[in-house]
Recover the amino acids of this structure.
């Protein structure tokens, strides 16, 4: 079983402005190779915000190789391997845009995102930033926004997930946690995603082949906490002004559609979900004129 953890840092907001890259190659649970290099972007412009994050400046990359000069070596290291990154969408966009700007064909690799993997393992966590996840699994993230530190952290998350799942192969691990691999290939990049539209709880006692229970982030009792007061408040509000109640309800309807979309994307219901329910209730009550005195 082999994979390569990859991480990019960029000079500015352009995805094609890669200024550093790190690769950590893993075989059968052991790091067998590492690679790090600064990259001179095609356009030598660094945003202050980016410098503040990773500390790489224009002077540091002057005289460093362009991406196309590094590509033959990078290509050889990732050939036929699964690419692993935290928030892989960003790193694959950097790779794709940088390749495209240099007229270089895309490699063919499946992609696994450790952020998505972390959502499946730890659905109870409010955030799945790299520093939060590494702290959760007891790994010391030496430097924030350093490509090599990030790549090594991805390896730590992967090995933790493999150990806890009991899987011997990456596909088995992905199936255990309910994850679709992403893909980068000929002129195409697809995202790594949760299969079931929402995270499943990690069962500490589960073994490979036994799926964990679906994580339900908001049970029926919690819904009642929202709907009960909502009805009471909106009956009163509707008795005062039904037109406003219907207007507020239209906002709630849109919010419910968006919240449903987030659920299918695997995101926990947002904090404003309760308010959306109140708005939606207002619209329903306003439509039926609930709470209004009959006209004389």
């Amino acid at each position: 079983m082999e994979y390569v953890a990859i991480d990019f840092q960029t000079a500015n907001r352009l995805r094609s402005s890669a200024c550093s890259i790190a690769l950590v190659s893993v075989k059968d649970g052991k790091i067998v190779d590492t690679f790090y290099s600064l990259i001179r972007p095609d356009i030598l412009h660094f945003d202050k915000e980016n410098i503040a994050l990773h500390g790489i400046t224009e002077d540091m990359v002057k005289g460093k190789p362009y991406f196309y000069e590094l590509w033959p070596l990078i290509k050889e290291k990732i050939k036929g391997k699964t690419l692993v990154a935290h928030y892989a969408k960003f790193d694959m966009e950097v790779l794709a845009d940088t390749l495209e700007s240099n007229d270089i064909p895309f490699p063919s690799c499946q992609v696994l995102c450790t952020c998505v993997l972390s959502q499946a393992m730890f659905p109870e966590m409010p955030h799945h930033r790299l520093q939060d996840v590494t702290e959760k699994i007891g790994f010391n993230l030496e430097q924030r926004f350093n490509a090599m530190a990030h790549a090594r952290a991805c390896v730590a998350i992967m090995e933790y997930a493999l150990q806890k799942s009991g899987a011997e192969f990456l596909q088995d691990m992905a199936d255990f946690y309910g994850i679709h691999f992403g893909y980068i290939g000929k002129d195409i990049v697809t995202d790594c995603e949760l299969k079931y539209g929402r995270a499943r709880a990690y069962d500490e006692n589960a073994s490979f082949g036994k799926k964990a229970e679906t994580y339900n982030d908001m049970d029926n009792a919690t819904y009642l906490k929202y709907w009960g007061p909502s009805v009471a408040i909106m009956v009163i509000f509707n008795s005062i002004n039904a037109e406003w109640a219907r207007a507020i309800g239209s906002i709630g309807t849109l919010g419910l559609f968006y919240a449903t979309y987030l659920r299918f994307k695997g995101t926990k219901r947002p904090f404003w979900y309760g308010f959306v329910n109140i708005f939606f209730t207002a619209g329903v009550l306003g439509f039926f004129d609930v709470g209004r005195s009959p006209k004389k």
